[in-house]
Amino acid sequence: MYSTSYLLFQSLTAVALGDALGFPIQHDTRSNPFDEPVHEMVGHQTQEVPAGTWSDDTSLSIASLVSLTFGYNLHDLMTRYSQWYHFGDYTPFNYSYDIDETTKAALQRFDSGIEPKLCGGTMDSDNNNTALKRLMPLAFYLLTKNQHYVFNEATVKLIHDYTATTNRTPKTFIGSGILTNVIIRLIQNPNKYAMLRAVKEALDYYRSQDEYAAQVPFFEQLEEAHFLRQSSTKLRPSSDVIATLNAVFWCLMNSEQYNVAVSKAVNLGSDADTIGSITSMLASLLFAPVTFPESWLSKLQGRNQIKIAVSVALLSDNF
């Protein structure tokens, strides 16, 4: 297991790299996503921001890390998200952009006085990856605070309450539980077997819970080698929580190098920034230690914000 200081900085940088690579081509609808693939940072014509600019995935991850630096406090967490939304905190250019409707609605509820863990959406349209994109700091926090970490009821409650600030559906709770457990197990033991075992560990827990058992079959393909080895043309990447996890784990299982996994992820198109960001973060752990491509790093915007957030977090007792 590598040091927390190394892995935390590497993981947050990876979040930003995958996000910035995928942001310009999110919602891409090419019939073959690997036609004219993107392998380098390009400018975001729709947002009029330069190459290497990250989106809400990284902003929310930085805001989450800063909040958790001072402890697990959902009111503080949502206050920082609100500052991002209204004032452009945790962005490279001091204004917010690329805000999904689920996050926007949750923050409007918070601003109106709703309790943080009741702010998340409960509609079918809220079965999306909004919570997944900001789980990395929580995983590091949980592992730091629980040296004998177990995926049990107490752990799951913290993950679900954190998720509920934006998403309050059974599927998003399960998706968050799976991803958080995978992050932690990869920190502890970086290999594909440990990753798949972490998926099973989470699903076994949810199978034992009456309120979630009926939703588990929607995720069971993540345990199947046949599914994870299928052709990329069979994937249906989107912002849906299940489709996002399907795409992320497919990219990881079908790659042996960090940059290969990330390139596959962003070139799937659709919700390329989030799929790219999560894949990049997990790949940086799975293939640790990694050397990020210099052509990506050199164009990455806001690198000092990442360094400062991680440095301050590591001075606390929570990381």
From TrEMBL:
UniProt keyword annotation of DNA repair present: no
Cofactor, free-text remark: Binds 2 magnesium ions per subunit.
Keyword field: Hydrolase, Magnesium, Metal-binding
UniProt-listed Pfam families: ADP_ribosyl_GH
Cofactor (UniProt): Mg(2+)
Keyword Hydrolase: yes
Residues of the signal peptide: none
Superkingdom of this protein's organism: Bacteria
Binding positions (Mg(2+)): 55-57, 271, 273-274
GO terms assigned for molecular function: hydrolase activity; metal ion binding
Protein name from the UniProt record: ADP-ribosylglycohydrolase
Organism (species): Lentilactobacillus otakiensis DSM 19908 = JCM 15040
Native organism taxonomy: Bacteria, Bacillati, Bacillota, Bacilli, Lactobacillales
